[in-house]
UniProtKB/TrEMBL annotation, chains A, B:
Highest taxon of source: Bacteria
Region (Disordered): 1-24
Protein name, per record: Transcriptional regulator
Residues spanning the signal sequence: none
Organism: Micromonospora andamanensis
Sequence ranges assigned to domain HTH hxlR-type in this UniProt record: 29-127
Keywords annotated in UniProt: DNA-binding, Transcription, Transcription regulation
PANTHER family for the chain: TRANSCRIPTIONAL REGULATOR, MARR FAMILY (PTHR33204), TRANSCRIPTIONAL REGULATORY PROTEIN (PTHR33204:SF39)
The keyword Transcription belongs to this UniProt entry's keyword annotation: yes
Gene3D superfamilies: Winged helix-like DNA-binding domain superfamily/Winged helix DNA-binding domain
One Pfam family of this chain: HxlR
PROSITE patterns: HTH_HXLR
DNA sequence: CTGAATCCGAGTCGATACTG
DNA sequence: CAGTATCGACTCGGATTCAG
C-alpha cells in the first residue's frame, strides 16, 4: 500500500461504528501500517533470526536462502529506519557490520509469535480451502 | 516506452482479475503466507467489520470509505477462497449477497487483536524513529 | 444491487554486475 | 566484507465502463 490514508469508518479496536462519519481526515491505520512492514517477503524471517542473536550482513545472507544483497540491504534499512533493528559498524579491515533487534524489535516477537502459532495451526485448513472447487 | 507488455506474452499470462489471487511462492512459510493475505490494503479492515456482523456488498462498500467495487470483490473473493469468509446469495430481485466470517475467520480475530494492540501501543515510537535523522 | 471487463501507473522484487 | 547500480518482470490497486 502506498502511504495513502485508508479512509476508514471503523478500526480494529473497539470504537462503536459511527454511522456517517463525516470526516475525510482519518489517520492512517497503525495496524495495517505495521503489518505492511512485517509482511514483505523477507522481514518476518529476518526479525525471527535476529530474535535469536545479532548477525553480520553476510551471515544473514547465508542464513536466508535466496535473498539478494539488494533485498537484504533494503529490508534491513527499513527495519532500522522503523527503529526495530540497530546497525553497528565496526571499522575493521575488512569492514564488519552487525545487526541486532532493538528493545522495540524484541517487543514485537511475542505478538508475532501469537499470529505465527495461529498460522501454523490453521495453514492446512487454508490450503485445503484454496483447493476446494468453486 | 514504459514497461507495458506487448502482444502474445501479455495475453497469455496477464489475467486482469485472477480469481484466487496468485499466491506466489509463499505457501512454503505458513506464517508469511497468512500475513501476506491479511496485509493487503483492505483485508484487515474487512475482517474487522465482518467480525462484528454479516454485511451485504454495498454495506461494505459504504462502510469502507474509498474502496472500489473491484477491490472489494477481489478481496472478498480471496477471503472466501481461503476459507475465512462465507458468501451467501439470496436470489431476490434485486439480488442480495451476504458475507460473514467462517469459524476459521473468527478464530483469526484474536491473534490479530494481539498484534493490533502492539501496533497501537508502539506506532508513535515507530513514526518517531522514521523521522529521526538517520 | 452485485458485480465483471479493461486500461494503466506505481510500487515490489529478482538478477546481475560492480565498488570501497 | 558489505554493500550500490541498473535493468526488467511482475503485481497491486485505482478509474472507468458495462452487465445480469
Amino acid at each position: 500500500m502506498t502511504t495513502r490514508n485508508t479512509g476508514v469508518r471503523a478500526s480494529l479496536h473497539h470504537h462503536p461504528l459511527p454511522n456517517p462519519v463525516p470526516t475525510g481526515e482519518y489517520e492512517h491505520c497503525p495496524v495495517t501500517d505495521v503489518l505492511r512492514r512485517v509482511t514483505d517477503k523477507w522481514t518476518l524471517l529476518l526479525i525471527t533470526l535476529l530474535g535469536r542473536r545479532p548477525y553480520r550482513f553476510n551471515e544473514l545472507h547465508r542464513a536466508v536462502e535466496g535473498i539478494s544483497p539488494r533485498m537484504l540491504t533494503r529490508t534491513l534499512r527499513t527495519l532500522e529506519s522503523d527503529g526495530l533493528v540497530d546497525r553497528e559498524v565496526f571499522p575493521t579491515v575488512p569492514p564488519s557490520v552487525e545487526y541486532r533487534l532493538t528493545p522495540l524489535g524484541v517487543s514485537l516477537l511475542e505478538p508475532l509469535s501469537v499470529l505465527a502459532e495461529w498460522a501454523v495451526d490453521h495453514h492446512t485448513e487454508i490450503v485445503a480451502a484454496r483447493q476446494r472447487p468453486s
